[in-house]
What does this fold into?
Amino acid sequence: MTTAIAAARVITEDIKLAHSVFALPFAVLAASMAAFHAGDGSIDWRDFAGPLAMVIGAMVMARTAAMLANRILDHRIDARNPRTAGRAIPSGRLPLSAAITALVASSIGFLAICGLFGLLRDNWWPLILGLPVLGWITAYGLFKRFTWFCHLWLGASLALSPVAAAIAIDPATLAGPPVWLLAGMVLCWVAGFDVIYALQDVEVDRRDGLNSIPARFGVDGALMISRGLHVAAVACLYAVARTQPGFGGAFLAAVVLVTGLLVVEHATVRQWGTTRMALTFVTLNGLVSIVVGIAGIGDLAVAAS
It folds into this structure.
């Protein structure tokens, strides 16, 4: 038992569970959008609380599985990279077998929650789609071996979170554009900041024959592509504001604030390169997701009252 607790602690630190903040607010927001749609402009918060808790649980399980798969697939690559050699598996703090066990457990936990939507709410789509989703999000680590489109694959993996959350609450929500536009925003935003993150490993990627946009196009080219992706992300977010019933001034203000945060993100990279990655990667992008989530849910709550 003590060994299992110690392994769980190492895993939590290594996969940075707190980084769930990048996708979780979008999943909660999309679930709220679906509940608003299902209620024809109102939300029964008591009825919504249980499914929302299941969405959050499924989201955490899915991200844990995805990150563990990435660490397992990359453990030999990580051992050759000075920046990542201290991660749990290559450093020996976490046995590979324990990581695989945790991957299986988190995957089962995710599928079990998906099954609850069928048993408790007669919505079997989460369970039907659960295995393909797991396959998609756990394959990210393979793609940098083959293509520099790996950043877009990661973006699409996180973009599944609002789509999956909406399906879990009300599949009919996907008949309209808002959730798809929100997913497009997440895809472009995540891919854009993952390109920035990959700037740290340009020389290692080239040495080891790995693919990334910085390794393929150089630092200047990568930053240009990242900026283009973030412009597209803001455009998608503005389109969400214009198409989602119930969104108002708070969400439009969030679009403006997110635009400013992304401008600051690129300014920090231009000024300090990758030396301020904690600010560039974690703080600013964490604020983007939190701002969008709070503003959207707040507008929906007011509109539904």
